[in-house]
Design goal:
- The protein is an all-alpha fold and 435 residues long.
- Helix content is 54%, strand content 0%.
- α2 crosses α4, α19 runs parallel beside α21 and α20 packs antiparallel against α21.
- The longest helix has 20 residues.
Length: 435
């Protein structure tokens, strides 16, 4: 794909040959080329500048000026051709006048010429007035350090693109300034007509711009067709598929789902209030007949306290069915942190006699019960809860569900604090017998 049309190529080459001030030529450049093709134009300028034989010295200065000023004036993004300008300024094999010009564009000047004065001159006037001997040239490393914040940290490198051939190819056998059709000794044609600096220079530049692209001449990425391997036994079975398939029947189709709906409805009622004995019995029978119904009954850990307070018997049965569930830890966490009550202790007591509960869960629940008794302000409710806790602890100790030595100090302090209550005194005597 060509980067510039024939008209755009002609406009670019005419601007490079303009004998006007650089500032005026740049304004002409901005009027003839829209912003969205500035990058394509600059790519072509870089290509023309890479071979020093294509453009005249005045044209090269104008091209360098365009490369710098296009992005300097727009200020929309960093100059993508800054690395090329730095390389040109540090190249000690090129003309010192060009190096001086580029350095002054970049802001490194050792003479009286600054960027503003350069813009008010023509390229020819600059060549006449410039003294390269007065300019201090910087090394490539010094320039890179100065512009380190404007250059990418690590340039992108495509290993496949590095194999491409450059668009501008220089013949090493042809002397600088001559084309490949140099005259023989007996050729009467003047040498100036064979040199690129003659009438063929503009045609060569236009031909380069029109016949190359930014991608270069990349080698084709060959994808060979894989070879056909010899057939193996059973490899082409799909050509003659077998039709002896076993039919799989979904036995859950048309199944009676009314039982699950009935249990869900009763569980929802159980969260709001106490169920009648007949309803409790129905829930227990359905859960016993199909333990998986517990996963579809609409209960969640967040709503467990409601079920415990309203229907502790159903809560115990549900928790027993969920004992192998991955959510049982969440249910235990809610149960151990809910407000202490007769129903919650009843649920925990029934669970301890039915299954082996985690020791840490039981210890945490006992500690919360003791703390609840100590923090309550109502003396009547306090005495009532202390009696419940003492009876609960005696049951756990007599049934050897807990090792009292693990909580001996805490339980003993509880008994001493409430020793006026008969049940606490009885618990204290029980502790003494176990020492």
């Amino acid at each position: 794909m060509k980067m510039l049309s024939v008209t755009q190529t002609a406009n670019l080459l005419s601007l490079l040959g303009e004998d006007r001030t650089l500032d005026f030529v740049f304004h002409e450049f901005s009027s003839k080329f829209e912003r969205h093709i500035h990058f394509n134009v600059c790519c072509n300028l870089v290509m023309l500048l890479e071979d020093r034989r294509i453009l005249k010295q005045t044209q090269r200065l104008v091209a360098f000026y365009f490369l710098y000023d296009v992005y300097c004036r727009e200020q929309l993004c960093a100059n993508p051709f800054l690395s090329f300008l730095l390389d040109a300024a540090a190249d000690d094999t090129t003309d010192n006048l060009e190096r001086t010009f580029v350095l002054q564009l970049l802001g490194f000047t050792s003479s009286n010429n600054n960027k503003k004065e350069i813009s008010s001159q023509t390229a020819a006037e600059y060549i006449k007035t410039c003294d390269p001997n007065s300019q201090t040239f910087l090394s490539h490393e010094q320039l890179l350090r100065h512009f380190s914040d404007k250059l990418p940290g690590e340039p992108y490198k495509s290993y496949f693109k590095s194999a491409a051939t450059k668009n501008v190819i220089r013949d090493p056998d042809v002397p600088n300034g001559c084309d490949a059709d140099a005259p023989e000794l007996d050729d009467p044609t003047p040498l100036s007509e064979h040199r690129i600096g003659g009438g063929n220079r503009d045609a060569a530049a236009a031909g380069l711009v029109q016949n190359v692209s930014i991608q270069g001449f990349e080698p084709p990425w060959i994808r060979p067709v894989p070879p056909i391997l010899p057939e193996q036994d059973g490899e082409l079975v799909w050509l003659t598929p077998e039709n002896n398939h076993e039919l799989l029947w979904d036995y859950s189709m048309c199944a009676d789902t009314s039982r699950g709906a009935a249990v869900r409805d009763l569980i929802i009622r159980a969260l709001k209030g106490a169920l009648a004995p007949a309803q409790q019995e129905e829930v227990l029978l359905e859960l016993e007949a199909d333990p998986k119904l517990v996963y579809h009954c609409g209960l969640s850990p967040r709503r467990l306290p409601e079920l415990v307070e309203n229907n502790p018997i159903i809560a115990v049965e549900v928790l027993l069915k969920l004992m192998n569930s991955v959510q049982i830890a969440d249910y235990f966490k809610v149960l151990v942190n809910m407000d202490m009550s007769l129903h919650s202790m009843e649920v925990v007591n029934r669970l301890t006699t039915a299954v082996d509960l985690p020791t840490q869960f039981i210890h945490t629940y006992i500690s919360n019960c003791i703390s609840s008794c100590q923090n309550i302000k109502d003396k009547y409710m306090q005495n009532r809860l202390v009696r419940l806790v003492c009876v609960f602890l005696q049951s756990l100790i007599r049934n050897k569900i807990i090792n009292v030595q693990d909580l001996f100090i805490e339980v003993q302090a509880f008994c001493i604090e409430f020793s006026r209550i008969r049940e606490a005194a009885g618990l204290f005597r029980l502790l003494k017998t176990l020492e």
